[in-house]
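Re-run requested by the PI after the first attempt was lost when the workstation crashed. Everything re-entered from the original request form. Ligand of interest: MV4.
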Amino acid sequence: MITKVLIANRGEIALRIHRACKEMGIATVAVHSEADREAMHVRLADESVCIGPNASSESYLNIPAIIAACEITGADAVHPGYGFLSENARFADIVEAHDMIFIGPSAAHIKLMGDKIAAKAAVSAAGIPVVPGSKGEVLTLEDAVKSAKKVGFPLLVKAAAGGGGRGMRLAQKAEYLAESYNAAKQEALAAFGDGSVYLERYLGKPRHIEVQVLADTHGNVVHLGERDCSLQRRNQKILEEAPSPALTEEQRTEIGEIVRVAITKIGYRGVGTIEFLWENGEFFFIEMNTRLQVEHPVTEMITDIDLVREQIRVAAGEELGYTQDDVTFSGHSIECRINAEHARTFAPSPGKVCDFHAPGGLNVRLDSALFAGYSIPPYYDSLIGKLIVHGKSRKGALMRLRRALGEIVITGVETTIPLFVDLIDDPEFQEGDYDIHWLERWLEAQAEN
Ligand code: MV4
């Protein structure tokens, strides 16, 4: 049984977790940096503890301070949210060593999926299709040259400890392989203290489609469909939707079942995301995320399943209580990430929020910790809210999104809202006709006008 959860995060996701806890009759503990003393997640929680100064390295990443906050308040579980310590296997281990529940997968599964080479081997052995590439790590340049002959060009050199696009180098032809190999290895060593790299065939114009899974500790696993996260800029997702406009019902069922069976074999617990590149109707695994993701609400909206509630239940050892056949998908959902950034230059825009008005109405959700008079600190991620809409169809969701965007008022700081107002009128976007490079090209075209 879980009676008190310490939420090791801030902003909208700390509120999101607080809401699930309150609906389950669970007490909450907020932790915060000095800069976040007046933050909404601190105000709403039942108790709060200051864990350090402004810099996240000294507060939200400060494991001893967070464990001390757990002991002071008597929390029996820790929810890490996303970012910060959410995929830190050592943190999961330490939480459990202090006889508390880590609301997430086992430390071993976090570690496995954190090593992109080991993750690929594990999911491939469990039946998930992966991007063709080197057989594990390429230890030397000589090894890379040999392996590249089989993989073909263009190819990517990727860091085993990377992910999210860090430590990745493109080699267009054989003559550039040495340069890419050395650069990727050097960058990986500097960034992660681990220079292990592997090769993958480069997919030129894929979509980024990810499958959500949920597993309990009794061998029950369900997939909750996919999200299309192709609309991104510099590896930052901007807008996500579920279902993907590109998939047929049959394709969804087929990949979902492959993933469900594989995750069962792997013995995974909690929520997880299997990331794929999708090109010419084929899925290719790239990475698995072992955390709750920013874009989880679009899945919640089409399945009517509260992912944080389910995370907490399975972490406490409860059974899912339903099977894949009980999971139904309804309508279409779209999420816009509202960042405190200039909508065109993406320059950060921290500072004091003057007016704030949240949109409302049927099937409109705003996940945010914002309030009028709040000062957005410059020390953290610029995400200040997520606008999520649901409609019976994609067209209906788009109409609702345009309506909801028109209702939001945030003054005093720049936000990315004007970007979505323009994007929603683009014919290709309206058709769902986009890949992972589409948004960057669209932004360039916009800048010319
Ligand atoms: C790729 C790829 C093409 N081919 N792998 C970038 C982030 C990291 N998670 C994986 N990434 C990519 N891996 C192969 N074999 C293209 C990307 C990529 C990308 C992937 C998903 C979403 C946005 C992206 C933007 C640029 C490149």
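Saved to the shared folder this time. The first helix runs from residue 11 to 23.
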